[in-house]
Amino acid sequence: MNKHVNADISDLWPGDFYRLWDTLPEEDRSLLKRLRAFMETEVAPIVDQHWRDATFPHDIIPKLGELDLIGTAWSGEGFRDQSYLLDGLIAVELTRIDPSIGTFVGVQGPLAAASIYHCGSDEQKAEWLPKMRNFELIGSFGLTEPQVGSAISEGMLTTARREGDQWVLNGQKKWIGNASFADLNVIWARDESDNQVKAFVVEKGTPGFETEVIADKIALRIVQNAIITLKDCRVSEANRLPGARSFEDTAKVLRLSRGSVAWQAAGCALGAFETALAYTRKREQFGEPVASFQLIQEHLVEMLGAVTASLLMCKRLSELQDAGEDSEEQASLAKAFCTAQMRQAVARGREALGGNGILLEHKVARFFADAEAIYSYEGSREVQTLIVGRAITGESAFV
């Protein structure tokens, strides 16, 4: 028997072991193919240098805008009204090449633009969303604070005070992707009059709005996370999102975005898997490709299992989202499970490359490092676990 056989899996996407792509209509596959070509030809060759330098490739933004990636599941004038499955697979295609670019688009769409889509007035949507959709306007999402992360629903320190037809914002936000160059910054603040969380769109150049890029990160180095300082920052009542009346409205946005992060985690694990698979097929020891070694195959199969389980969980979540039947707890389980699977997968990928696994030139090190940020943002695994635990036991373990 010939020891070397042809693997019966697609060269286009070897991680799609259960042929998820085959369930899509041709129009969706066409969009994903265009996105894949863009990511492989325009982004893959430049991301290592930008990751090394902690810089953002601004020149790719107009090209991203041409791909029509934002709001694919949204309905209304100008939107595709297709599916959250397509939306999720867009996140996979972005992140399998670079988690930082996947995060950039995740902030632009599922967070910033989604806040306006779900909480904005018709006039606000008409004014801002078309330009956000084509990336003419870049958005950020200001929720987390220097002193408050998981407890933000109860402990938000940023305040809003109404004075006539203006609002005065004071406070700080931290870890805000895109904020240093965003045109529209969705800022969540607690209204001093009723103690409820509300949302405001702070435009670039508004007096009292300052940003400082966070340096020395070891993950998602391309993403320009910033600390936002709001000091007597005045915004018009016209820039308040009227549909954001309490943290429950914030949670609606987060419920959908956590599903998107689960897809990102699957994409990060997929990128590490594909990188490790390609490397082990070419790397030889003792006259044989290391992909023929039993223990290397174990690493690859475990990685593929993590990718597949995550993709299929995300697929079912997207079906529930399309039907309007998804819950906070389901999104939390997907986020917690998929990011944990991702973390294990990238570690196996790094190990499969041996010493070369820590070198940026071999790619898997970037996935290995970036996974740590995806694992933590949009709600930690611990908090998501407690949300699901409360749902299945009927007992709250929150302090």
UniProtKB/TrEMBL annotation:
Necessary cofactors: FAD
Pfam families the UniProt entry points to: Acyl-CoA_dh_1 (PF00441), Acyl-CoA_dh_M (PF02770), Acyl-CoA_dh_N (PF02771)
Molecular-function annotations in GO: acyl-CoA dehydrogenase activity; flavin adenine dinucleotide binding
Source organism superkingdom: Bacteria
Domain Acyl-CoA oxidase/dehydrogenase middle: 140-233
PROSITE patterns reported in the protein's UniProt record: ACYL_COA_DH_2
GO biological process, one term: fatty acid beta-oxidation
Assigned keywords, A-Z: FAD, Flavoprotein, Oxidoreductase
Keyword Flavoprotein part of the UniProt annotation: yes
InterPro entries recorded: ACX4-like, Acyl-CoA_DH_CS, Acyl-CoA_Oxase/DH_mid-dom, Acyl-CoA_Oxase/DH_mid-dom_sf, AcylCo_DH-like_C, AcylCo_DH/oxidase_C, AcylCoA_DH/ox_N, AcylCoA_DH/ox_N_sf
Every Acyl-CoA dehydrogenase/oxidase N-terminal domain range: 26-133
Domain Acyl-CoA dehydrogenase/oxidase C-terminal intervals: 251-392
Family from the record: Belongs to the acyl-CoA dehydrogenase family.
Protein name: Acyl-CoA dehydrogenase
Taxonomic lineage: Bacteria, Pseudomonadati, Pseudomonadota, Alphaproteobacteria, Hyphomicrobiales
